[in-house]
Every structure is written in structure tokens, then in C-alpha cells.
Amino acid sequence: MNVALSIMKKIWNLGAVIFFIWFGFKVIGYGMDILNVEVPSMCKYTDVAEFSSPNGKKIAKLGYSDCGATTNWQSGISIVDVETGKVFRGLFGLDGKPENIEVVWKSDTKVVVSNFPIKNLLWFKNDNFAGAWLELKPSMANRVAGGL
Q: Residues 46, 40, 26, CA angle at the centre, nearest 5°?
């Protein structure tokens, strides 16, 4: 019976240690969020251009990231809410630098992204909370001969 109690006590103590380590990381993470502390990233992000919405409440930011020698550049668009400062990332991503991409606000809530090769599209996700809807128009070079 002593052996079973000893094993149960060790398991209980191990669970407590794991919980407090997890809880400590959570507290540190929330503290960093509250204090706006940013940690260095392995990736370097470069803003290329900013495009204000017609009413000035949103900004579409075009930029690219470089995460080192073993990866290619990735271009992306994020939407910034000017009033709250909230940034909505991960809406649109391309392989490579944003050399010929055109970003145009068609209304206060619609952004048209055009002139890019569809084969370089990595991800596309519209987010209702961003307050802006992306519409993609890949370049004419992507169209198949014959009228498509």
C-alpha cells in the first residue's frame, strides 16, 4: 500500500509542476500583451506601401517578410483599423516579393488586389472582423488561351 501511495503522490506532484509551469507561461504571455512587450522575431517584415480607405477608417498595408536563407520572401496584405489600432494579418499571402501587385480600395469596405500570378498565391482568407473584404484579380498572364 505504501508503494501505491508513493506513486500516486509523485504523479500528483508532477501534475502540479506541469500545471504551474503552464500557468506561469500564460501569466507571462498575458503580461506581455497588456504591457505591449514584443519579442524579437526570426523573420524580418518590411512594409512596402499603405493604402487608406476612402473614409480613412482602414489602412491596407502591403509588405513582405524574410525568414532566412532557407525560405523565400512572402508578401502579404494586412488591414489596420485606424480607430482601434487592431491589425488583421494573414488575409492574403504570395510567394515572393510584391513587385507588381496593385491594391485599390473600391469602397470603404472593399479592397481589390490585382496583377499577381495566381500560381504564387499561398493563402487567401477574408475575415469579417477586419471590416474590409478582399477581392482578388490575378494578372492576365494566368488566363488560358482560348477565352477563359
A: 125
Residue 94: phi, psi to the nearest 5? -125, 150
Reference 109, options 87, 126, 90; nearest CA is: 126
Which residue, 75, 80, 76, 91, is CA-closest to 125? 91
SS3 state of residue 136: strand
Residue range 105-137, pLDDT digits in tens: 999 989 999 988 888 888 888 877 788 888 888
Q: How many residues does the chain have?
A: 148
DSSP conformation letters of 2-58: HHHHHHHHHHHHHHHHHHHHHHHHHHHHHHHHHTT-----SSEEEEEEEEE-TTSSE
